[in-house]
Amino acid sequence: MKARILIVDDEKVICKALVKFLVTQDYEAEGASDGAEAIEKAKNQMFDLVISDLKMPSMSGIELIKKLKQIHPAIISIIMTGYGTIDNAVEAVKAGAFHYITKPFELDDVAMLVKKALKFQELEDDNTKLKKQLKQKHTFNNIIGCAENLKDIFRIVEKVANTDSTVLVLGESGTGKELIAQAIHYNSDRSELPLIPVNCSAIPEGLLETELFGYVKGAFTGAINSRPGKFEAARDGTIFLDEIGDMSHKLQVKLLRVLQEKRYEPIGSTQTMLTNARVIAATHQDLETLVEQGRFREDLFYRLNVIPVRVPSLRERICDIPLLVAHFLELYATQNKLEKPVFNDEIMNIFVNYKWPGNIRELENTIERLIVLKPGAEITPKDLPDKFTQVTNSYFFKSGFAIPDTGISLKNIVEDFENTLIRKALDKTGWNKNRAAHLLKLNRTTLVEKIKKKNITRNKTQGKLLSGVAKVL
Predict the structure, then answer these.
(1) The dihedral of CA 173, 174, 176, 182: what is its sign?
(2) Whole-structure pTM value
(3) pLDDT tens readout for residues 113-146
(4) According to the CATH classification, is domain 4-132 in 3.40.50.2300?
(5) Which of 2, 326, 380, 460 lies at a 20 to 30 A Cα distance from 105?
């Protein structure tokens, strides 16, 4: 599609000459004799570029640029000016013009400047689209799930996103803690600034300090050049410290100072660096227990734990399993250019009742494996890894408890059957623990301890999951 250019100049000869020339350069161009006419044209049609004289009666080129920006924020402009008004041209650039050209000028110079301006606009548009896509990628809509405990997290994140408060994301491995950190950053006022992730458990202790705070030339053997750290890279953006529970005591002290004073020294330097980076930390460990054991500083824990966000495990959001299965089926079938396998109610029943110790990451890997190995086929229990056939929870009981050829784990089956009975008693009594304990011939305190130990949580939607799941997928 041809770029559309508007020429604005009260000197009709110049205006017509430029319009004619730009048409020969394969652009669509038209002229306007003053600012008012130009604005009227801009209201009725879209222009990619405006070339305007600086000094015109009733409205200057600078005023025109500002008004056109209000109509079409993406429009780009070039100012034409006489030799004696260079200072005014510089002012026009500061006001938003891409560049200026002095009269008299060569038409080839105009062509080159127009080409550069339109290329710049194209790059700006691409950059804007990429930023928009990146932000959309990490909005709440892209975190798959409808469980109430997940909605509670969204409500918290929406409240804290635009604050500077430190956030501590808690949850088991594979639950998606980094996605929550990304959602916080990309829904905040810092979304256009860097988000710098650091996995504290993946970097050796001796290197983590240099990664975080950087070093200066000569700080140690091999430091032939200075190197900035992650806090400097984050600047006014966000730094995400994953697996903070694995950080050494020495680094905990330095991090505490950063949180308290917003300053630090690179290794080998006496110069203090300032940082305005927001800190989001995450861990799968129980930091309060680590504090009690003397493995984590209590003062640092309270600095980090300003806004705690606990991400539920997959077994606590069973209603999301069919949604996640459908999502990963679509994702990996598309990526691998393979036909999606068919998941029937039997397989979904196994998935819903499986404990998923690896959480969403384990589910994702399982789906990808099935797509690659069984494209387009109907999945049966035999296609699943042994861990699924060994621990099928209530599935084997519902199907007459047939022992598979691969065998079963008696310990797991007994434990899972106990979990099923407890849940059935709780569901039957509307989660009245006194009545449930009576049905199971248990003391109430014993039942409460079992519920807590087994992490059995109420889920109103589980009973509605299996009906018609195969049709949805």
Answers:
(1) positive
(2) 0.58
(3) 999 888 888 877 766 665 555 554 445 556 777 7
(4) yes
(5) 2
